[in-house]
Design brief:
This protein has 250 residues and is an alpha/beta fold. It has a single domain, classed as Purple Acid Phosphatase, chain A, domain 2. The chain is built from 6 helices and 11 strands. Strands 4-3-2-1-10-11 form a 6-stranded mixed sheet, with helices on one face.
């Protein structure tokens, strides 16, 4: 029998042991490669391994595509080709760590397609997400995924601290989102007929990356973390990433 590990609370240890062999879904937050926190991938692996999840969902914005953004760009930022090459190498590390992942299309994910639409380029000339990022066959992109009655989507169009809750209410089912970098957590809502939750899994970005310099004067800072959904879609847990005592000043 496994022994209790002091670094975990007894409650967390008991929960992990209860669910370790019961499946579940691990959810990766927005990574915005190649501007992801250098320890975020290891953090996700350790969390998903602890809970013994059987499926992985990436909540979207797996890449940043900063050079393709419609917003103003700093002159020091890499051009589109250089950024894409660096992002590709980062994605290959994710492929090696997690061979099978369901990816939700995010607003940054879709920037190549949005730019193509702006330029009047027909869809027949555009590669798929899988082709763009040279993904292994275990990685698939869709706008939404539904697993055990829980809806997973990026969250484009939602904002604020209660975006996850409002999204679940609008969908009328338990819903997991990312997109809103400053928040992470779970809210449960009950009616006479059911119990649903909304969860924001936060993000995994490197707040010191130049791509996020726009937020240096924002009072709210990114909340790094990931999520797990257990009990056949009935239990959701947000796991914050421990950054120690370090406080970013961006």
């Amino acid at each position: 029998m496994k022994q209790y590990r002091p670094r975990l609370s007894q409650k967390e240890f008991d929960l992990i042991q209860q669910h370790r062999n019961g499946g579940g879904v691990g959810i990766i937050g927005d990574t915005h490669e190649p501007f992801c926190h250098p320890n975020y991938r290891d953090f996700c692996y350790e969390v998903f391994d602890r809970f013994g999840v059987s499926e992985i969902v990436h909540i979207g914005d797996e890449v940043d595509n900063a050079a393709l953004s419609y917003h103003e760009k700093m002159a020091e930022m890499p051009n589109a080709e250089s950024e894409a090459e660096t992002a590709q190498r980062a994605m290959e590390r994710w492929y090696a760590t997690f061979p099978d992942v369901k990816v939700c299309v995010g607003n940054h994910s879709a920037l190549p397609f949005r730019q193509a639409t702006s330029a009047g380029i027909p869809k027949r000339f555009i590669k798929s997400y899988e082709e763009i990022w040279n993904a292994p066959k275990g990685w698939k992109w869709e706008m939404q995924w539904e697993i055990d009655g829980v809806l997973y989507e990026h969250g484009t169009g939602s904002s604020g601290a209660m975006a996850h809750k409002n999204r679940a209410i609008a969908n009328r089912q338990s819903t997991v989102i990312g997109h809103c970098h400053s928040f992470g957590g779970v809210n449960y809502m009950a009616s006479r007929n059911d119990l649903i939750f909304g969860m924001n899994v936060g993000c995994g970005i490197d707040v010191d990356a130049m791509a996020f310099s726009y937020g240096k004067n924002f009072p709210k800072k990114p909340t790094l973390g990931c999520g797990v959904v257990l009990d056949g879609g009935r239990t959701a847990i947000f796991i914050p990433m421990d950054l120690g005592s370090r406080v970013s000043i961006i």
